[in-house]
Amino acid sequence: ASKSMKFGGITILFFIIYHLLHLTCGSVGPEHTALAEGGIDVYRNVVNGFQIPYIAGFYVVAQAFLALHLYHGVWSMMQTLGLNHDRYNSLRPKVATAVALLIGVGNISIPVAVFAGLIK
Q1: Which residues, other chains included, contact 68 with Cβ-Cβ below 8 Å and sequence gap of 6+?
Q2: Least trusted range by pLDDT, from 13-17, 40-44, 96-100
Q3: What's the pLDDT tens digit per position in 51-83?
Q4: Strand partners, 34
Q5: pLDDT tens-digit map of 5-28
Q6: Around Cβ 89, how many Cβ atoms within 10 Å?
Q7: Taking a C-beta distance cutoff of 8 angstroms, is the pair 56, 114 a contact?
Q8: What is the DSSP string of the chain?
């Protein structure tokens, strides 16, 4: 995970910028839908966006890098908090893996579900 930080960080930076422009500002991506009372229909824009393979793929790749970042970050956080001890060393990778998988798989499931047609 630590070896992917440079490329992962750049990917996550581009992801954050695109994500905000795509779902919050509505200025990039496919057709954007506005709500009747003003604002952007984020749900509809998520569905419209994730039906396009390269957008869904970019989100999946970015979330995979985010999971690696979280794994490394949780591992390092536990070490910083003093859990770098023989008593806890076996716990650190388990907790870091659990956090990274929970958030990574959860976030990846959204574009996959839309692209697979489970969410319309």
Answers
A1: 1, 4, 5, 8, 100
A2: 40-44
A3: 999 999 999 999 999 999 999 999 989 888 888
A4: 40
A5: 788 888 899 999 988 888 777 777
A6: 12
A7: yes
A8: -GGGHHHHHHHHHHHHHHHIIIIII--SSS---B-TTSSB-HHHHHHHHHTSHHHHHHHHHHHHHHHHHHHHHHHHHHHHTT--STTTTTHHHHHHHHHHHHHHHHHHHHHHHHHTTS--
